[in-house]
TrEMBL record:
<feature type="binding site">
    <location>
        <position position="67"/>
    </location>
    <ligand>
        <name>NADPH</name>
    </ligand>
</feature>
<keyword id="KW-0560">Oxidoreductase</keyword>
<dbReference type="InterPro" id="IPR053790">
    <property type="entry name" value="P5CR-like_CS"/>
</dbReference>
<keyword id="KW-0641">Proline biosynthesis</keyword>
<keyword id="KW-0028">Amino-acid biosynthesis</keyword>
<dbReference type="InterPro" id="IPR036291">
    <property type="entry name" value="NAD(P)-bd_dom_sf"/>
</dbReference>
<dbReference type="GO" id="GO:0004735">
    <property type="term" value="F:pyrroline-5-carboxylate reductase activity"/>
</dbReference>
<comment type="function">
    <text>Catalyzes the reduction of 1-pyrroline-5-carboxylate (PCA) to L-proline.</text>
</comment>
<dbReference type="GO" id="GO:0055129">
    <property type="term" value="P:L-proline biosynthetic process"/>
</dbReference>
<dbReference type="InterPro" id="IPR000304">
    <property type="entry name" value="Pyrroline-COOH_reductase"/>
</dbReference>
<dbReference type="InterPro" id="IPR028939">
    <property type="entry name" value="P5C_Rdtase_cat_N"/>
</dbReference>
<dbReference type="InterPro" id="IPR008927">
    <property type="entry name" value="6-PGluconate_DH-like_C_sf"/>
</dbReference>
<comment type="similarity">
    <text>Belongs to the pyrroline-5-carboxylate reductase family.</text>
</comment>
<dbReference type="GO" id="GO:0005737">
    <property type="term" value="C:cytoplasm"/>
</dbReference>
<keyword id="KW-0963">Cytoplasm</keyword>
<feature type="binding site">
    <location>
        <begin position="13"/>
        <end position="18"/>
    </location>
    <ligand>
        <name>NADP(+)</name>
    </ligand>
</feature>
<feature type="domain" description="Pyrroline-5-carboxylate reductase dimerisation">
    <location>
        <begin position="172"/>
        <end position="276"/>
    </location>
</feature>
Amino acid sequence: MVATPALPPIAILGAGSMGGAILSGLVASGSAAGGVTVTNRSAEKARALADLPGVTSIALAENPAGNVEAVAGAGIVLVGVKPAMVPDLLREIVPALRPGTIVVSLAAGVTIDTFAGILGADVPVIRSMPNTPAVVGKAVTGLAAGDAASADDLALVRALFETCGAVVEVPEDRIDALSTISGSGPAYVFLLIEELTRAAVGKGFDEAQARLMAEQTFIGAAALLDGSGEDPAELRRRVTSPKGTTERAIAVLQEADLADVFARATDAALARARELAAGA
């Protein structure tokens, strides 16, 4: 069994939706023994994180030098600000980075070359694409390492994200495509649950009953898939009795050409990721 690398002090710059999700996973796992320093622009957001164990929370509105202070003692720095804010943030923190500090991007569409162009070609940079189930330790995170990142650097960052779920290592040119599946994927699932709930309400169930049926069906199906180790197509066949009610419903769904719908949806997401990378 391979030993999990010990995590060094971590800084999360911009602990918003995604940065906050990673923080939640880290805290819940108890793996961040070196401590975590997080920054947010507002005092209100900073206060909301201040009582988490092992977390130092800085409000930039009260301490404008907070980002620099956060990275000065960190071995891993997660950049979680909005993509348009990344270049200015990198220019702000580069003088304070210690040699060997690993910089991890959480910013959609911002390339490793953008980081290296500001931080320097010798700074280890790893681009990540996690998803929000990190909050409950069930994320899927894609990782792509820059040229300056060693195998040990990648292993350390992988260990960080494994506190929040599963990790997939890919070349950088696959990160945007990965984001259309696992990055955006939770939204697709939530949309399906919304629509199944709406269908239940249309059949006479009240909102609470409809939500219970739809949500627990998805949760239970996912748990069955996880626990059984079976292919989803095989599990679907087991539920679909010949000439039964489920078979009739599946036929309607297949008539809708879901393969094409999901292909077009993920293609649209990929096109937007490329627009973001181009600054659009």
